[in-house]
Amino acid sequence: MNVNVSSSPTATPPVALVKDSTDRAFKVDVIDASLEAPVLVDFWAPWCGPCRALSPNIEKVVNEKAGKIRLVKINIDENPGIAGQLGVQSIPAVFAFAGGRPVDAFLGAIPESEVRKFADKVIAAAPPAAAAAGSVEEEIKNATLAAKEAFDVGDLNTAAQIFGMVLQHQPEHAEALIGMSRVYLKAGEIEQAQAIFDTIPEAARKGPDYTSLGAELKLLSEAAELSGTAELEHELARDADNHQARFDLALAFNAAGQRVEAAEQLVMLMKRDRTWNDDAARKKLLEFFEAWGPKDPATLKGRRLLSALLFA
Q1: How big is the chain by its Cα radius of gyration, in Å?
Q2: 213 versus 143: which is more confidently predicted?
Q3: Could you give the residue numbers annotated as active site?
Q4: By three-state DSSP, how is residue 80 classified?
Q5: Whether the predicted pLDDT of 86 surpasses 70
Q6: What angle do CA 222, 242, 227 make, to 5 degrees?
Q7: Which residues contact 226 (CB under 8 A, 6 or more apart)?
Q8: At what angle do helices 208-223 and 190-197 cross, to 10 degrees?
Q9: What are the residues whose beta carbons fall under 8 Å from the beta carbon of 98, sequence distance 6 or more?
């Protein structure tokens, strides 16, 4: 029985061995595709005579290999970005990618026989598809850990660079987006931190890291329009029962990084009027704990103060 594969509903469309691409599609067409098979990237331009001489030779060799290697062609007049990142200064320039990274290159219009030798060398050295995918994932995992370690010791520049490299490979990598948002937040660039936070994919908007960062950004947003701590303390010196001023002072202290002082103000407000504004002080204190994390010294101190008040 003859089966028409092209009309079968479960058939997978054949992979294009030769295709034109763009800077925008480079990740999918080259980086991701090279996890399955090596990819040659031919940087060319319509005005380039040697490019026109080389192109049919590369296409012939790639088609001969029947899927063992692929070719992606990028017109640098229309797409200068990736060529610039790779340091291309003259064309034709051909880069070989395997396992998600550049592994070899040649410049100029070489003969068909040399193109074939180059392709054979790239194919022979390429890792198996599964191993390539696994190695890239492992590298991304290690890079993310290194970025977090840099952040923890206060090296924001290194953390930002590493998180940025991860996001070049996987733009929706949730851990890297959260990490980059925290870097901007630590640097005092709250608007940029919020902008990055808002790009976290919907499916990844969960877990303690996401929740903590979201709570912290919300608290800082609330404090943005408040008076400074000195002015609020002055208002409380005039009227210790100005509960709104004390509540605002807690928010301002938190925004200034004075977490213990922020917790103390909310506990003091609860002592003076537990029911004020529908138990707002206790609710806000719990938001602080969520933003700070369970192991933060201010959280531990705040919980002790809260327990002492509630169970006195």
Answers
A1: 29
A2: 213
A3: 48, 51
A4: coil
A5: yes
A6: 40
A7: 232, 248, 251, 252, 255
A8: 140
A9: 34, 38, 39, 122, 125, 126, 127, 132
